[in-house]
Design goal:
Helix 3 packs across helix 6 and helix 4 packs antiparallel against helix 6. This protein starts with 6 loop residues before the first helix and ends with a helix. The protein is of the alpha+beta class. It is built from 15 helices and 15 strands. Among the domains are: 162 residues, Up-down Bundle (Acyl-CoA Binding Protein), CATH 1.20.80; 124 residues, PH-domain like (Roll); 59 residues, no CATH class. It holds the Pfam family FERM_C. This is FERM domain-containing protein 5. It comes from Cnemophilus loriae (Loria's bird-of-paradise).
Length: 534
């Protein structure tokens, strides 16, 4: 990669390799050394955006979820979106009832192994797949039952299409959560979907705001503000606190991009947005791509032979592991280096430390599997919960975010059940094998403990110092300009109409004779005294 190569060059190269034309829904994401995620900006140099040393690890994934994924023009695009949503389901970002979870998993099963064959698929064959963070035997039987009786004869493309149609109806479709806290200190997850802004607490959606109701988004430090204008001229401001200033800025940029993509009619309507009302303070950002309506119009004009799709088939899919030999849940190898283990519970709590917007802290296997005599944290890490009949709920990390390390300790909740914990390290390995999410899991590197002033804190201090210096520089510059204007008015012989009108005002004459002339004589006297001394 050339040093001056822009992000657009790398993205186009990748889409050409995948034979992908409907590429506006996708993006490239990477993680900086502080474990903060960023979207690669296509208008800037790739190398300059990276704070790490090469080789760079990046992830190709869905950035803007299609409003109607079944309406995508080409099968290759639908397949890549299918892989992304399948991965969202596996990692607990797509919540649904048990009945819906069984149907979605059955569609995946049909797409990967085809029709049920008693000779190839023995009793309990569905348990060899892992569609969710945690299975129950009852759910596995339901998945196998649907696969045997209802989906026979469906091709992989048809099963994937039906999967997308079902996933699109769920409340958490398209959710890419950002862990935050509300004004009361309660944990929450903010997300931007094709239909609007979502706030989730536990397994409930507490706020849903349509894009046309969002009037403004801004941030200051760790604080994120969302300005909403609803019916009857009702205006509200939602305030949330991100773990770090970098996470808050990432949240703000994601919001600006999503609103522009889904709300605007044309890309020519996109404007540069500032996070502050003062021109010398805050961040400025502009979405550089096409909007959803333009993408749909462009897709309708595609006329080519459908490209060949190389599906995984019977090859184990590490994002949603396919059939392997061994006991249940053994499709993901256990021989890992140090891992952060997560326990299963209700709600979106798994995403607190999912490294979407915040770093995670490492823990040893011994800590994660501590016996009953250990601390409450170790006990919490052992308890897991199966999928409830009402809703499927993802995992909850027992470790606090970096923001919690500094100020707010998150309350650790747990549920009693059976099974083994799933680790972030395992998720890291599993994500790397999916074509639609290549290498994202590898970005789940563990954050080492550090004492003293960390890199993030040092960066915050540097930003504050730079902001103060910038303010002082602007102030000195304005004073210098005013001084030059004053000298021109009082000492120059310029007789333009503008200067003449100012000089004839009573206020200027009073200032000139009572203040400026005495001050000039005083300076001249002091200057002569210094010259005489020399």
């Amino acid at each position: 990669l050339q040093r001056d190569a822009k992000g657009q060059y790398l993205f186009d190269l990748l889409c050409h390799h995948l034979n992908l034309l409907e590429k506006d829904y996708f993006g490239i994401r990477f993680v900086d050394p502080d474990k903060q995620r960023h979207w690669l900006e296509f208008t800037k140099s790739v190398v300059k955006q990276m704070r790490a040393q090469p080789p760079f690890t990046m992830c190709f994934r869905v950035k803007f979820y299609p409003t109607d994924p079944a309406a995508l023009k080409e099968e290759i695009t639908r397949y890549l979106v299918f892989l992304q949503i399948k991965r969202d389901l596996y990692h607990g970002r797509l919540l649904c009832k048990t009945s819906d979870a069984a149907l979605l998993a059955a569609y995946i099963l049909q797409a990967e192994i085809g029709d049920y064959d008693p000779g190839k698929h023995p009793e309990g064959y569905s348990s060899k797949f892992q569609f969710f963070p945690k299975h129950s035997e009852k759910l596995e039987r339901k998945i196998a039952e649907i696969h045997k009786s209802e989906l026979s004869g469906q091709t992989p493309a048809t099963s994937e299409l039906n999967f997308l149609r079902k996933a699109q109806t769920l409340e958490t479709y398209g959710v890419d959560p950002h862990p935050c806290k509300d004004v009361s200190g309660n944990a929450a997850f903010l997300a931007f979907t094709p239909f609007g802004f979502v706030v989730l607490q536990g397994n409930k959606r507490v706020h849903f705001i349509k894009w046309n109701e969002v009037t403004k988004m801004k941030f200051e430090g760790k604080t994120f503000y969302l300005y909403v204008s609803q019916k009857e001229e009702k205006k509200i401001v939602l305030t949330y606190f991100a773990p770090t200033p970098e996470a808050c800025k990432h949240l703000w940029k994601c919001g600006i991009e999503n609103q522009a993509f889904y709300k605007l009619e044309k890309s020519s309507q996109v404007r540069t947005v500032s996070s502050s009302n003062l021109f010398f303070k805050g961040s400025r950002f502009r979405y550089s791509g096409r909007v959803a309506k333009e993408v749909m119009e462009s897709s309708a004009k595609i006329k080519r032979e459908p490209p060949e799709i190389h599906r995984a088939g019977l090859v184990p899919s590490r994002s949603c592991p396919s059939i392997t030999h061994g006991p249940r849940l053994s499709s993901v190898p256990r021989t890992r280096r140090r891992a952060v283990h997560i326990s299963i519970m209700e709600g979106l709590e798994s995403l607190r430390d999912s490294a979407h917007s915040t770093p995670v802290r490492s823990a040893s296997h011994g800590d994660a599997f501590a016996g009953p005599g250990r601390s409450g944290r170790a006990e919490s890490s052992e308890r897991v919960a199966v999928i409830a009949d009402e809703s499927y709920s993802p995992a909850d990390s027992v470790l606090p975010t970096r923001g919690a390390e500094h100020s707010l300790e998150l309350m650790l909740l747990s549920r009693q059940a059976n099974g083994a914990p799933c680790s972030i390290e395992e998720e890291k390995e599993s994500e790397a094998g999916t074509p639609a999410a290549e290498a994202e899991g590898e970005l789940r590197a563990l954050c080492p403990g550090a004492g003293g002033l960390g890199p993030a804190q040092a960066q915050q201090v540097n930003k504050f110092v730079l902001s103060v210096l910038r303010l002082l520089l602007v102030t000195v510059g304005l004073l210098f300009v005013l001084l030059l204007l004053l000298i021109v008015l009082t000492e120059s012989d310029l007789d333009t109409a503008f200067f003449r009108d100012i000089r004839q005002t009573p206020e200027f004459e009073q200032f000139h004779y009572q203040y400026f002339c005495p001050l000039r004589r005083w300076f001249a006297c002091k200057l002569r005294a210094v010259v005489n001394l020399l």
